[in-house]
Amino acid sequence: MWYKLLAGKSARVVYTQDAPFVFSYIATRDCFWNMLNKGVLQFCGFSPIKRTVVDRVRYMTDGRIERIFGKVFELGRKGK
């Protein structure tokens, strides 16, 4: 048995990827998220675990980058 030393803590994961989210979900069966979520965060006791995926990074306009930075900033400010 292991001790979930971070039980009672929540987690928000923000990550970027160049491929569209749907493509990576279908092609890799979302293996990055499954590994991080189950193999690390749940193992340590985090719950709830939420994620924000920023995809198609290569083709972002400056306006979209600013909107995403604002959204991520608000998530951090609110502690969500």
Describe this structure in words.
- It is a single chain.
- This protein has 80 residues and is of the alpha+beta class.
- The protein is 49% helix and 15% strand.
- The protein contains three helices and two strands, in the order βααβα.
- The protein has helices at 21-28, 31-44, 62-78, and strands at 11-16, 49-54.
- It has a two-stranded parallel ribbon with strand order 1-2.
- It starts with 10 loop residues before the first strand and ends with a helix.
- The mean pLDDT is 93.
Task: List the topology elements.
Blueprint: E1 11-16, H1 21-28, H2 31-44, E2 49-54, H3 62-78
Parallel strand pairs: 1-2
Write down how many β-strands occur, each being a DSSP E stretch of 2 or more residues: 2
Order of helices and strands: EHHEH
Largest sheet: 2 strands, parallel
Outline? flat
Query: Mean of the pLDDT scores?
Result: 93
End-to-end separation in angstroms reads 30 Å
Strand content: 15-25%
Percentage of residues assigned to helices: 40-55%
Q: Looking across the biggest beta sheet, what order are the strands in?
A: 1-2
Structural class: alpha+beta
The DSSP helix count reads 3
- Are there runs of 5+ residues with pLDDT below 50, and where? none
